[in-house]
Hints:
two-stranded antiparallel ribbon, mainly alpha, globular, disordered N terminus, 14 helices
Amino acid sequence: MTHMESGERRITPEELKALNSDPEFRTAFESDPELNRLEQLKYDERAEFLLFAGILHYHFAIGKIPIGVLTPAKWSFLYFAENAYTRRNASAGIADMDLFLYILSHSLQNLTCALHEIPAKASGYTAASGLSPEEVHEGILRIIRGAFLPLEMLPQQPGKNDEDVRYDGEWLVRIASLAARESGCSIEYCKFTMSLGEICTIFVDHQRRNADPDYAIQIRRRSDMETSRKIMKRTRDLQIEFLSKKERT
Length: 249
């Protein structure tokens, strides 16, 4: 049997050409959540470095704004502040960028203002970075990608996705407690100082050692070749689905 399964619908060169020039198909292709997820599984050197930098507590900057590591406490704080970056598929605006930069550049334990005053204090941070909003946005996305990068080693579970996660107080205490048991550090250190990337790495290692063997054996890095094969299959599935829909109308 070839790479094309027996009985699978073939796509002619003419159909392929028509698909590539069809705006409706291009929109469906570019916005497909599964393709976007698979693309993110490819090796990302910058995200890997940001994960590494967070684990070693390197401080760096977004433009002119010096920032510290993204910790579990800061991520949970941003979640409670309804920051768009903690919400799946939410559109981030300047206020979201301002708050993200402000929180990453300050210690939560040493804030000198009331919580309701923070948005006003954060206002203008994006402009002060000296970068365009687009550049700040990309910088923030890279930080988040680096922090959660270890979780991409976990196999997908049907019916579960990022929307199932609430980054609330229970989540914060649960992951900090796990990290404290595994590392020997205090819970306070794991909440306020340990990077979120290190926490996620510890969680993945814990899963690998303690999960059901059939699940644990699937916890691994995905090669780019394996990911590319899945992308090709998903692309073909979208093409066939789109053509079949056209044929029925």
